[in-house]
Amino acid sequence: MKKLVLVTALLAPFYASATDVNCSGTVSAVMDYPQQCDGNTAFQTTGSGGKWICPPSDKGNAIVLAAIAAGKPIAVYIDDQGGKISCSSLPSFVPARYVIIYP
Is the CA virtual torsion 91, 92, 97, 103 positive or negative? Predict the structure, then answer.
């Protein structure tokens, strides 16, 4: 029983983020500090269906700006809210969980 609890505790973060959707693509637009993103920039990707996404942090802002300047693709992982949203049905100014820039 203790082993089951330990394995479940170790795998819980993995399964919690397994419901994220990846709205990857290239950055198509960046907006400076809208109220809806708690002071962060907002951006759109070619995979976000034209909806604005909020980076999770200042470092996320930097990654988005570096990606657009370098023309590099990014991966943007967003909570799918229990299967209620997808990349094609994002609400406006949805918060990202994390942003990855590809080399």
Answer: positive
Q: Region 15-22: what's the mean pLDDT?
A: 72
Calculated CA dihedral for residues 20, 25, 31, 37, nearest 10 degrees: 10
DSSP letter for 90, please: P
Average pLDDT for residues 71-90, to the nearest whole number? 94
Q: For the chain, what is the radius of gyration of the CA atoms?
A: 15
- Long-range contacts at 81-89 (CB < 8 A, ≥ 24 apart): 82/19, 83/19, 85/21, 86/21, 87/21, 87/22, 87/23, 87/47, 87/48, 87/49, 88/49, 89/49
* Phi and psi angles of residue 43, each rounded to the nearest 5 degrees, phi first: -145, 160
Token pair of 47 as six digits: 């995979």
**98 near 79, Cβ under 8 Å?**
no
- Tokens linked to 83: 């299967």
